[in-house]
Every structure is written in C-alpha cells, then in structure tokens.
Design brief:
Radius of gyration: 13 Å
Keywords: Metal-binding, Zinc
Family: Belongs to the Gfa family.
CATH class: Mainly Beta
Strand content: 35-45%
GO molecular function: carbon-sulfur lyase activity; metal ion binding
Number of domains: 1
Organism: Bradyrhizobium sediminis
Oligomer: single chain
Helix content: under 10%
Pfam families: GFA
Shape: globular
Order of helices and strands: EEEHEEEEEEE
Structural class: mainly beta
Strand order of the largest sheet: 4-9-8-7-6
Largest sheet: 5 strands, antiparallel
CATH topology: Metal Binding Protein, Guanine Nucleotide Exchange Factor, Chain A
C-alpha cells in the first residue's frame, strides 16, 4: 500500500501552485471525452488535503455535461491543475491532475481504469 506523502505541484508556467497530501493509491485512467483529449489522470482528495498556494486569480473554470465537476485551468498556460466536485454520496472532493505533481513519473504509478465514456 502506498505511503501518504505531502506533494507540491502546479501548472506548466508556475502561476498556479498547490500542496496536497495523498497516498496516490488510486490514479485514474479514464476514457471519457475530457480525460482522453486532455490526457488527465486524477487522484481524489478531501478538500482539507489540498491547499492552493498561488494562482487563485489565474484560474479559469470549465463546466460541461452535467456541470457536476468544476475543472480549473491556468489562464496563461492552459494546464488543468485540479477540479472541484462532489462524489455520488454528496461528499465534496478535489480531483487533482496527478501530472501536475512536481517530479511525478506517471509510468511508475498503478492506474485504475475508469469507463467514463459509458456512464
């Protein structure tokens, strides 16, 4: 089982920065339209485990489909750093784009397939 660690990260240009605590036990490989086209791999965090350290004013929100997930991208470089949403039980959640974690190597992470295309 992976260890819980504190990570830092941000967008490509560095205007948006965050700190989070997670074990990266589940990292998604979702086949929905947005994850496929943007190459997103999310891990899901309780809001208390995610702190936006810089760039709140540099974020642009994108909503689609049911408007249940509020995708947050840097207005300068366009990288989607995270999204805010709710789980099916109503619990608030932060979906963190794992690719935005400093020094992360996606090839070394176990991916959990998600069939978002057919939901």
């Amino acid at each position: 089982m992976p260890d819980t660690k504190t990570y830092t990260g941000g967008c490509h240009c560095g205007m948006v920065r965050f700190e989070c605590t997670t074990d990266l036990a589940m990292v998604t490989a979702c086949n929905c339209s947005i994850c496929t086209k943007k190459g997103l791999h999310f891990t899901f965090l309780a809001p208390k485990s995610f702190v936006l350290r810089a760039g709140e004013d540099n974020l642009k929100e994108y909503l689609f489909n049911k408007h249940a997930i509020r995708h947050q991208s840097c207005i300068d470089c366009g990288v989607e750093v995270f999204a805010n949403g709710t789980k099916p039980d109503g619990t608030e959640v932060v979906a963190l784009n794992v690719s935005c974690i400093d020094g992360i190597e996606l090839a070394k992470l176990a991916m959990t397939p998600i069939d978002g295309r057919n939901r």
